[in-house]
Amino acid sequence: MKRTFNFMKLAFLVIALISISCSPEDGRDGEQGSQGVAGQDGQDGTDGNANVVASPWFDEEFPNTASTSASFNRTDTAIDQDVANAAAFLVYGKRFTLGGTDIIVQLPVTDDERTYFYELFPQTNRIFFRAESVDKTTQFIFDDYAQFRFVIIPSNNSTGKGSSPDFSKMSYEEVMDYFGLTY
């Protein structure tokens, strides 16, 4: 019995030494198993600029008569109270040139003794475009800008690119490039 007990102790000691002295790096790696069945494709995420709204260019609708001021309205359901409360709202005017290069400026702008600006009326989903003579007495036909466009950048849109720049200080091209929008 004593002999069996000593044999068992010795066997246990040998097994313990073998298991302690072995490590995964000591042996050869087994062969790579075969590739498993491909899983189902996941749903695509939304683009980083998914919440940014850019209107198409639209023609100006100022009256074609000389006056000290003129105005027109544009209705768009994207112009709502949330936009008025918290979104960055940028408006651009486009002037066509003879050389084929369009000049695009951000409103409000004063140009050739004329000021162009806008107001939002979110209750009725409207943007109100207004032009005035700087001195309020000289009459003009307000046709400096042939088209207008607006861009809405919601405040909850961190743009996925860290802290957002001051879009109002960026050129039209910089804003379009930043969000990957068409000119």
From TrEMBL:
Taxonomic source organism: Spongiivirga citrea
Give me the ranges of the annotated region Disordered: 25-50
What name goes with this protein? Collagen-like protein
Record keyword Signal present: yes
Which of UniProt's keywords are assigned here? Signal
Please state the span of the N-terminal signal peptide per the UniProt entry: 1-24
